[in-house]
Amino acid sequence: MSGYDRVIDSMFGKSIFKSESTLFPEFVPPELPTRDREITRLVKNFRSLLGKEGSFSVNVAIVGQPGIGKTALCKYTMKHFAEAASSRNINVKFLYYNCHSFRSKTAILRNILSEHFRIQSRGFSDEEILDMLVKRLSREDMRLIIALDEANMLNSDDILSIFHAGEYFGSEQSLISTIIISRPIEWRSLLNVPLSGHIHDQLDVPGYTRDQILEILEYRANLALVPTSYSDDTLNLIADISAPSQNARLGLEILYRGGKNADLKLESFISAEYIRAAKADVYPELRRDVLEELRVQELLSIMGVARKLKAEGSTSTTIDESYEDYLLSCEEYEIESRGKSTFRAAIETLHKVGMLGKSVGPIAQGKRGRRAQITILDIPVSVLLERIETILKKKIGENNLD
Ligand SMILES: Nc1ncnc2c1ncn2[C@@H]1O[C@H](COP(=O)(O)OP(=O)(O)OP(=O)(O)O)[C@@H](O)[C@H]1O
Ligand SMILES: [Mg+2]
Prior knowledge:
Layout: H1 3-12, H2 36-45, E1 59-63, H3 70-87, E2 91-98, H4 105-117, H5 126-140, E3 142-149, H6 156-166, E4 176-182, H7 184-190, H8 193-196, E5 201-204, H9 210-224, H10 232-242, H11 248-264, H12 272-281, H13 288-293, H14 296-312, H15 319-333, H16 340-352, E6 356-360, E7 372-376, H17 381-397
Parallel strand pairs: 1-4, 1-5, 2-3, 3-4
Antiparallel strand pairs: 6-7
Helix pairs in contact: 2-3, 4-5, 9-10, 9-11, 10-11, 11-12, 14-15, 14-16, 14-17, 15-16
Residues 70-71, 149 line the site of magnesium ion.
């Protein structure tokens, strides 16, 4: 095959994917099998927004372990909720924010105003911005539902003041409702008495059983793959692998990677071998969506930590030690390095988004105080480095340097 033929063949030749993008992490499927109960409960919580005689603001928390469809449940349900409301001439707007990329109340409020209401809010305080927003909603008779995903990136006070904004005109005319999404441990650390007093309902979403994971895999495989490219055995094997974690993301990633590997080898069937190989290659705790939201300086910081650990063959390091490797990484990628306090702040963020762990190390001899030890996720350093490099190069290529 000539080089040209190879290009044409890869572009238009056979693939076992009929719609690869339906397995991308950000894709929200047209149906959510096995989540009927949660969808109903979420919708019922927001029924009061539909009342003619004035709506009430509602704050709901969706809490559950990784990969069990919290984000999908929220996006799917509220998209349909807003559509159905608008078909009955009730003006409901649903806005979704992932707090990994919008990390403060101010960032979220400014984005709401500029992106969705075309109001420039530079120079105004948060209170003034909220005031403008509430007035605008009131004028347009619009109810706003804001989803704050990965809400632990904000602090309780920020979330509280968004709740308070919802109650601006008293409970008769409440125009802002919220959905807070979080994993259980983070949720517990966020929740305090004032906050819990404003949460009307908390959906504790359970993990998936093996059979539920199988049902989800059947549905998603049918959307993404040519029917002859897999069998019941293929999906059952993936369901067995994913069942202990109760995590649908794990199953879908294995399916995707298994499919990709088969496709690259120009195979027309995803045999068990491809699934087993994919299993060894998938690290559900290393989330691609989280990595992609990281800023270039944060990627370089985690790279510094990972390189330090790799060079030393150790499991933990310190700010001082890894800062050196961070500087080298910046030099290599020709990105201006930052001072140690910025590096420390980046490490803090990486810890918060779950990309780095922290522990307090033993007191070194002759030194005072304990030094915080930095650790990475329980995955091979080389895998982490490879994924960081891919995203870093992509960002630098796009000149996405902030
Ligand atoms: N019931 C379902 N039907 C079809 N696909 C699903 C279902 N539940 C989850 N998924 C898919 O599984 C993957 C993980 O779901 P999602 O991202 O919503 O999990 P999450 O609970 O938000 O996890 P995290 O805490 O890590 O953010 C997504 O690709 C989602 O589309
Ligand atoms: Mg999520």
